[in-house]
Amino acid sequence: MGNAGSSAMRGGSSFSVSGETRFAALRREIMSPSLSFLMEAHDGISAKIVEEAGFRGIWASGLTTSAALGLRDSNEASWTQVLDVLEYMADAATLPILVDGDTGHGNFNNVRRFVRKLCERGIAGVCIEDKLFPKTNSFIGDAQPLADVDEFCGRIKAGKDSQADDDFVLVARVEALISGRGMEEALRRAEAYHRAGADAILIHSKKPDASEIFAFAERWANRAPLVIVPTMYYATPTELFRQAGISTIIWANHLLRSSIAAMRETAGRIHEDESLVRVEGSVATVKDIFRLVGNAELEEAERRYLPERPAAGAVVLAASGGLTLDQPKCMLDIRGQSLLQRLVGTLRESGVRDVTVVRGYRKEVVALQGVRMLDNDRHAEAGEAWSLACAREVIRGETIVAYGDVLFRRYILDSLLTSSADIVVAVDTLAISHPRPGKRDLVTADHRFSGDYLDDLPAHLLRMAGDIPQGEISGEWMGLARFSARGAEWLREEIAAMEAEGLLEAGDMPLLLTRLAGKHPVRVKYFTGHWLDVDTLTDLAEARNFT
Ligand code: SPV
Ligand code: MG
Fold first, then answer.
1. Which pLDDT band, with edges at 50, 70 and 90, does 540 fall under?
2. Ligand 1 in contact with 66 (CB < 6 A)?
3. 284 - beta bridge partners?
4. Alpha helices per DSSP H over 274-338
5. Which of 66, 272, 335, 503 is deepest in the core (most CB within 10 A)?
6. At residue 316, does pLDDT exceed 80?
């Protein structure tokens, strides 16, 4: 037998929080003179709930583990399937687990292999009952056949000889009272099992009162720790068990039973109401699920293990005037949030946190918490390139440039952010088949969107303007571009070049991007729809439907 520290457990799962092994922790609970409690669990999340409730050990019930799989408590789940469930439980909680091993899944040989596998998985103990494989739940029928005493003692010895940890606990369960064989038979069996090496005796009873248990405990006189399961005699005060010298109480099935009641209630209500309204307040929150399964730890690990990439910044050009409404377009209300708020929200969701907005028209109403505001005070006569130039000091490192009156689905932004190109623009191919009215930034690229699955030829910008002839249009720019750190440098250089040529005031983004495309590759990423440019009142109505 190895010691706990050297046994072959899964990483970290063999130790409970205090640094004590789970084997030692269960042994201490069972052997201690004070009354201990084991609470039933049947899967990872119920194990976690048992731990959070403050229990110091788990009963992996055969009845509820089977039932949670939709199976009967008749060895319908194979022993390896039980092992799989135990592994989830041991991973989810640090508590020691006493598993209901039923009859040991066969004869002595099956018990040996089962115990070895339990020890490998850090399961601290097993309880085997003196019945025959395949077993039947003790509360079904009367006078179930019992195992031959000597044969069952062989199972106990085989289990104890197979444990890989000195502290592994084997509990022998006596079914003599349940199957109507009487007190003497129960005592005779308990004594034999104790002598065969069982660490504790589970004396089971299905009477509605605990008289049999007390009678047994008195005669047993603490020869070995006694474990009980008061499912049927639940009304007996716990204090009486304490006085009777009981070692451990197993609350055997109450988490599954309570979840069945709750699930039935919830399913019924939702079915009846065709709505979630009535149940929302009474069910655990999704956040609670995230907490229980440890999402916070994953976030922390991501910070530790994922490569860090400096976050991209964004410049939002929002200096232009209103529609018929007397307010900047970026402040139009789209279902309770300004357009700018939605745009910045999308940027942030994609990890773009450093956002600068260049405002102009009615700048006093353009505000958003956590966003840097710069002013283009010449917005009436100077256009987009000028606005961008107002932000040139913040165009450092990877930068997104977006119009302040567009909305787009996040995947479009994510696709630009993951592009390997130094400059990439988002282009809508629907502009060819569904041209929108009004001012549009049309694009001619060296390669048109084909829609062909096998077409992975990258397209590059040749020209962007408002007046490209129909036959030469590859799509419409969505007002969204990404520049790598190098692309951002090129962008600053081009702003300076336009300034030197006196073109900055009148220049717009199509001119700026066309000039860039003449000097550097400007990648075109094609999309089909899923964006909005709030230029007209029709666009505004559509935007209000955009979620
Ligand atoms: C179990 O929980 O599966 C048990 C206890 O074996 S009992 O159902 O009371 O037999
Ligand atoms: Mg059972």
1. low
2. no
3. none
4. 277-280, 286-292, 295-305
5. 66
6. yes
Q: What's the 137 CA to ligand 2 centre distance in angstroms?
A: 6
CA dihedral of 444, 446, 452, 453, whole degrees rounded to 10: -120
d(CA 231, CA 81): 25
HSE-up (13 A, CA, CB side) for residue 527: 23
Give the pLDDT of residue 417. 93
Q: Is 129 in the pocket of ligand 1 (CB under 6 A)?
A: no
The alpha helices in 93-210, defined as continuous H runs, are 108-120, 149-162, 182-196
Nearest CA to ligand 1 atom 10: 138
pLDDT at 14: 53
Q: Residue range 262-277: average pLDDT?
A: 96
Domains of the chain: 4-252 (3.20.20.60), 255-283 (no CATH), 286-311+343-351+383-546 (3.90.550.10)
How remote is the CA of residue 229 from the centroid of ligand 1, in Å? 8
Six-digit token string for 483: 């520049």
3-state secondary structure of 480: strand
Higher pLDDT, 172 or 7: 172
Is the beta carbon of 252 within 6 A of some atom in ligand 1? yes
As a whole number of angstroms, the distance between CA 46 and CA 60 comes to 10
Q: Is 358 exposed, middle or buried (0-12, 13-18, 19+ CB in 10 A)?
A: buried
Ligand 1 pocket mutation, candidates 58, 144, 177, 229, criterion most atoms within 8 A of CB: 229
- The mean pLDDT of 139-146, rounded to a whole number, is 90
Q: Establish whether 73 is a catalytic residue.
A: yes
pTM of the full structure: 0.65
Per-position b or e across 502-529, b if 16+ CB within 10 A of its CB: eebeebbbbbbbbbbbeebebbbbbbee
Q: For 399-422, what is each residue's pLDDT tens digit?
A: 999 998 888 888 999 999 999 999
Q: Is residue 253 within 6 Å of ligand 1 at its C-beta?
A: yes
- Report which ligand 1 atom has the smallest distance to the Cα of 206: 9
Q: Which is the closest atom of ligand 1 to the Cα of 40?
A: 2
